[in-house]
Amino acid sequence: MDAHRIIFATSNEGKMKEVRMILADLGMEILSMKEAGIQADIVEDGKSFEENACIKATVIQKMAGGIVLADDSGLEVDFLGGAPGIYSARYMGEDTSYDIKNQAIIDKLKDAEGEERSARFVCAIAAALPDGSVLTTRGTIEGQIGYEIVGDGGFGYDPIFYLPERKKSTAQLTAEEKNEISHRGKALRAMKGKLTEYLGDSQ
Ligand code: IMP
């Protein structure tokens, strides 16, 4: 176990870049699973974003020691009763393209107008700590499902996630603009606050 490092349990390089930027001033080394030499196939069978993030973080923490962070995120569409929610990545099949998934959501909302199109991205982050306890944070960004697929930035559901006040989808924001307002950015900054407190107390 190394007291000066944090492992972020993801294999997504885009997320790692964002995490390194936001957590830089904690003064800890931030490693991906690959960099930490850890491989794990984790069954995410939790019933909430928080449960899934906790499952990932605690499994890896038991393998690696130290502080391990993990996230779980997704899109909630109110008109669809909160779907796809925690099943966002698996929605319509893991290998189905987002062009198809995004068009399917637009089609399902053909009878929804204005406020009825409300949706949010949610991100939960869990930090599994060496003493066996777990910290969690949640960040959200509110928006609406657009009427068409627009923008080529971001990933996943970004091209249909419309921000009325900016008149843009999140796929039309720069990476920096998105980090400032995104569910993941908010959850990460909240976690940075909790970790700063924890690290201060444990010294
Ligand atoms: P995970 O947190 O990596 O399991 O991702 C869950 C899924 O939620 C992703 O595969 C995307 O479909 C969706 N998702 C989460 N965050 C975003 C985002 O910022 N933009 C677009 N889609 C997202």
Automatic annotation (TrEMBL):
Cofactor binding summary note:
Binds 1 Mg(2+) ion per subunit.
Reported EC number(s) for this entry are 3.6.1.66
Query: What does it catalyze?
Result: ITP + H2O = IMP + diphosphate + H(+); XTP + H2O = XMP + diphosphate + H(+); dITP + H2O = dIMP + diphosphate + H(+)
Ligand binding (Mg(2+))? D72
For whether the record's keyword set contains Hydrolase, the answer is yes
What biological processes does GO assign it? Answer: nucleotide metabolic process; purine nucleoside triphosphate catabolic process
One Pfam family recorded for the sequence: Ham1p_like
Question: What would you give as a GO molecular function for this chain, any one?
Answer: metal ion binding
According to its record, what are the GO cellular component terms?
cytosol
Residues annotated as binding substrate are T10, S11, N12, E13, G14, K15, S73, F155, G156, Y157, D158, K178, H183, R184
Where do the catalytic residues lie?
Answer: D72
What does the UniProt keyword field contain?
Hydrolase, Magnesium, Metal-binding, Nucleotide metabolism, Nucleotide-binding
Which family is annotated?
Belongs to the HAM1 NTPase family.
Quaternary structure and partners: Homodimer.
- What protein does this entry describe? dITP/XTP pyrophosphatase
Tell me which species this is from. Qiania dongpingensis
